[in-house]
Each structure stands twice: as structure tokens, then as C-alpha cells.
Amino acid sequence: MNDAAMTSPQSQVSQDDTDGLPLPRRLWAIVAISFGTSLLVIDGAIPNVALPTIARDLGVSNAAVTNVVTVYQLVLVMLLLPLASVGDRVGHRTLYQYGQGVFMVASALCFFADSFAVLLLLRALQAIGAAMALSVSAAMLRQIYPASRLGTGMGINSVIVASSAAMAPTLGGWIVGHAPWQLVFVAAAPLAVVSLLIGRSLPDPEPGNHRLQWKSGAWSALTMLLLIGGLQLATHGDVVAGSVLAALGVVSLVLLVRREKARPAPVLPVDLMAKPVIGLSVLANFTCFISAGGLMLSLPFRLEEAMGYEPQTVGLLLLPFPLTMLVVSPLAGWASDRVAPTKLGVTGMSIAILGLIMLATMPEQPGPWGIAWRLALTASGFGLFFAPNTRLAIGSAPKDRAAAAGGLYSTSRLFGQTLAAVLVGILLAGNLGMGPVPMYVSCGLAVVAAACSLTRYRYRPT
């Protein structure tokens, strides 16, 4: 073990990658990518509150209308890794801004959607634009900030993500109550306009000279389609077909890994996963998002069905979690520039595990304060983990593989969120979802994340 290497985050990035953008260009670039990030997060979360209205207006069932969200998420996770490879070839800023352009066009067309099929097609087009931008956003963050402040940048980005996610339901509810529901899909588009107007400030490194790997990209997208689509199909009731698709996805993944191992810059970044620091960080991120997602999806059922709270009250009771994340995440990012991210991650997971145990064992009627402090404790642990873990994973990748590392990390997050929904669905189907069992399961996943963080401490970041 080399403690000196681990306690000096600056040593994780080579000297030629430490300068970042000069001021004031760096500030404009931060604003541009912040607007772009907020755009993508809001668009992913804002339609949820409009789904019942869309179902009534377009004459589809409540089960079918959830595909408005599912299609977006599925296309996004399918394309992140292939488009990260494209970004390395054509240029990060170019792909990022083209993605925002595609998103704006799709958003404008959503206003004229008058059938469910057209709406789903336009949501898929929105997801393509979002994937183009998101696939290279982490790589650009690394180029915007000096290496000594990369953690601070990740913390700021976490605040943008958390605040946008918290704002989306309120904004969506207001639009549905005062305007046509189609505006829900247009609401975030002005953020893309602002980001594009000042987008020349974004970093634009020289594109790579490797050939585009269309076959590997298509294979990667198909594998994600089988895995995610199969899991979602099984969750919605077709267990046999869903299980078959998911099993085919696993087989496809194994074969794809074998193919990509022989390539110098693979679309599926097995070269990065083979580096213990990056591989363990991605695995920790994956299990952590399942843990946090499972908690936030299952807790409303316990609060409403088991404890008798009204739906509108449940929303307020859950508020301490995102509010705590808003405070802790930037502090954790700032701290990760000065303290080894692994130390922060293990500490954060230890706090989250304690909070999850407190939530699992809370009395039948803990009262609002009893729920709030337990959620705040748990959120502080997750908040202390995410930004430093991201900093370590992205900062440890070779400079020319930063986009691939960002795509891999984003894919692990989205895949984790999908598995969280599947997990909660299984627990609810087994009559185990409205008690303490989901919290214990989340606790077990947090233990896995902590073990990954602790294990990587022995490796020197490269």
C-alpha cells in the first residue's frame, strides 16, 4: 500500500493534465456545462408528474404511459458508451453541442405531439441528444478544472444534479396545472440555448485518430437493450420473456468483453475496468446507486401504507434527503482535493450504513422529526461518498480515455437506478416492500460499496 499516493489526490493525474482552463474562460465553461447538466437532469425527471394527465389525454393506460420515462432511460443507457467513443473521435465539444441541438429540436417537436406513438419517438430522439452530451460531460469537467480542484468541480456538478432533480417535480406540476402538458417536454430547452450561446468557452481537445468502431458500438447498445429491457419487462409482469432477454443480455455481455479485450481503445472500456482503482470505484458507484435508489423508492410505500401518512405529506417527509445532499456534496468534493477520496468514501458509507440501520429499526410511529434526522444522517453518508468517488474514477483514467471513463461511470449510475426499481418491485411483489427489509437490503449494498472503497486503498491510482 502506498499511503502517500492515496493521500495526495493531485498525484492521480499526470502533470500535463493539471492546468485546466484559464480564467475567465473557466468560469464561462462552468456556467455552460452547468446549464447543460441541469437541462439533462430536469428533462429526465420532469415528465413523472405529468404521466396521469398524458394517459388521460392520449387515451392510454397508466401502465403504458410509463414508457414515456422508460424509453428515455433505455435509449440513454444504450448509447452512452458508444457515443463516448464517438466523442473521442469527433471532439468532445462538438458532440456535446450537437447533442444539445438534437435535444432542442426534439423538445420543440414534442409541443406538437398528438399521439402516444409520436411522443415516444420524440422522447427517444431527446434521449439521443442527451446521450450525446452526457457521454462526454465528465471528460470536459476534467479538462475545465485544474487537477487540484477536480473534486470541487465534481461537488459543484453534484449540486447542479441534486437541485435540478429536486426542482423538476415542482416545475412539472406547475406546468401541468397551468398549461398544456406538452410544455413539460419543452421547459428545459431554454437551458440548452444558454449553454450553446456560451459554449465556445468549453474545452475542445484535439480529436483522436482511431477509427470509429461501429460494430462494437452497435453490439454494446444491443447488450444494454437486452439487459435493461429484459429487467424492465420482467418487472412489469412478463417474467418469462423478461428473464430470457436478460439472460441473452448476459451472454452478449460476456462475448462482447472477450471481443473488446483485444482492442486498444474499446467501446466497452474493459481496459479501464481492469485498473483496480477505476473498476472498484465503478462497482462501488453501481452498488451505491442501487442502495440509495432502493431506499428512496421503497420508503414512500412504508410511510404511506404502513405508517398512514398522506401522499402530499410523504413528499415533505422525504425532503431532508435531497436537501442534505445539496449541502454535503460540494463539501465532500472540496474535501476530496485535500483528503484521499477513499478515506472520504469509506467514512461516508459507514455513516450511510448507520443511517440505513436506524431507518430499518425506527419505531412504528417515529414522527416527522424521527424520520427527518434518520434520512439526513443517511444522505450525509451518501453525499460524502459520491463526489470523491467520481473524482477518483474520472481522474485516474488516462487523459485520452476520459470520455470512456465518464460514459462507464454514467452507465453504472443509470444501470444501478434501473436495478433499484427492479429490486423494489420484487420486494413489493413478495410482500416485503413496506417494512424494514428494503432498508436492510440497501444496507447490505452499502456494505459492498464500502468494501470496494476499502479494497482499492491498497492500489496506487494510475
Could you outline the blueprint of secondary structure elements for this entry?
Layout: H1 3-6, H2 25-45, H3 51-58, H4 62-65, H5 67-90, H6 92-110, H7 116-144, H8 150-178, H9 189-197, H10 214-235, H11 239-260, H12 270-273, H13 276-306, H14 311-318, H15 320-336, H16 341-360, H17 367-395, H18 402-429, H19 437-456
Helix pairs in contact: 2-7, 2-8, 2-9, 5-6, 5-7, 5-10, 5-18, 6-7, 6-9, 7-18, 8-15, 8-17, 10-11, 10-18, 13-14, 13-17, 13-18, 13-19, 15-17, 16-17, 16-19, 17-18
As a percent range, the share of helical residues equals over 70%
Based on CA atoms alone, the radius of gyration comes out at 21 Å
The N- to C-terminal Cα distance equals 14 Å
CATH class of the largest domain: Mainly Alpha
For the largest beta-sheet, the strand count, sense and barrel status come to: none
CATH superfamily of the largest domain: MFS general substrate transporter like domains
Number of strands: 0
Count of discrete alpha- or pi-helical segments spanning 4 or more residues: 19
Supply the CATH architecture of the largest domain: Up-down Bundle
Low-confidence runs of at least 5 consecutive residues: 1-18
What overall form do the CA principal axes indicate?
globular
Please indicate the percent range of residues in DSSP E strands (runs of 2 or more). Answer: under 5%
CATH topology of the largest domain: Growth Hormone, Chain: A
The string of secondary-structure elements, in order, is HHHHHHHHHHHHHHHHHHH
Indicate the mean pLDDT. Answer: 84
Number of domains: 3
Structural class: mainly alpha
